[in-house]
Design brief:
Blueprint (H helix, E strand, L loop, with lengths): L1 H25 L4 H33 L6 H66 L3 H39 L8 H63 L2 H8 L1
Helix pairs in contact: 1-2, 1-3, 2-3, 3-4, 3-5, 4-5
Length: about 260
């Protein structure tokens, strides 16, 4: 009986502590801290489960004894009943808190996965950009090929832009619902680094295309000038040929052609 009473008092105090911890967790929005705290509470509850089951078994055994006064029997019965009710209520509260925590943790994990995917995507684009510059040939055709490949890469970047924007939007939505969800700023730093790399990649592609387009434009202007000079030289050659024929003609023919 003494073991039962002492054990019941210890469990009662322990349950008070666990319920207070779960209540504190519910009143905060620090997702990371809540997750770590909940894991510790869950482990603690699992460790106490056999202790409580043994205590309840002891209580039911004492109720079957005939050596107790009715007053003791009533006390044991109430203690067992209260213990069972609080234990079941605690397990239900634990399940409820776990579901509430998952409401935050699930989209948080989704953002984690999205950041990793976007990081890998940027790395692939960076490697592709390096490969374009490495494999481009020399001369005018090499410039044209590089510009064409960069045009295709730019289309991919424009298409992937929405994935980068979605990460920032999802992060803002979570913080709006749970202001302290990223209390240590770890996710924000990763998203900023992601945006920095993305902007750097787009700027590099833009500048490369701008330079190549300028080179192609200069070549186009040169080609037009070259063609114009070729036409002018042909016309000049005809004039010179005519003058040469004129200089060799008799005087009367010269006067007639000049007239």
């Amino acid at each position: 009986l003494n073991d039962f009473e002492q054990g019941s008092e210890n469990i009662r105090l322990w349950m008070n502590t666990v319920e207070e911890d779960l209540q504190k967790q519910h009143s905060t929005n620090d997702a990371h801290a809540n997750h770590q705290s909940f894991i510790a509470i869950e482990v603690d509850v699992d460790n106490h489960s056999p202790i409580i089951n043994n205590l309840l078994t002891l209580g039911h055994c004492l109720l079957k004894e005939n050596d107790f006064y009715q007053q003791n029997r009533d006390t044991i019965s109430r203690t067992v009943q209260n213990l069972e009710q609080r234990w079941n209520a605690l397990k239900q509260l634990l399940t409820k808190r776990k579901l509430e925590l998952n409401i935050v943790q699930d989209p948080w994990r989704s953002i984690d996965e999205a950041i990793k995917r976007a990081g890998n995507m940027i790395t692939d684009h960076e490697h592709f950009l390096t490969e374009i510059k490495r494999t481009s040939g020399d001369g005018l055709q090499g410039v044209r090929d590089e510009y064409k490949n960069l045009e295709n890469l730019k289309k991919k970047l424009d298409n992937d832009e929405k994935e980068i924007q979605q990460i920032t939007k999802d992060y803002s939505d979570i913080l709006h619902a749970h202001p302290k969800a990223d209390k240590n700023g770890e996710k924000l730093l990763r998203i900023k680094e992601l945006n920095r790399r993305w902007e750097g990649l787009n700027e590099t592609v833009h500048e490369s295309m701008k330079n190549l387009k300028y080179m192609l434009s200069i070549h186009g202007d040169f080609q037009l000038t070259q063609d114009s000079l070729a036409v002018w030289l042909t016309d000049l050659e005809v004039v010179l040929t005519n003058l040469e024929h004129l200089s060799e003609a008799p005087l009367n023919d010269k006067l007639q052609q000049l007239n």
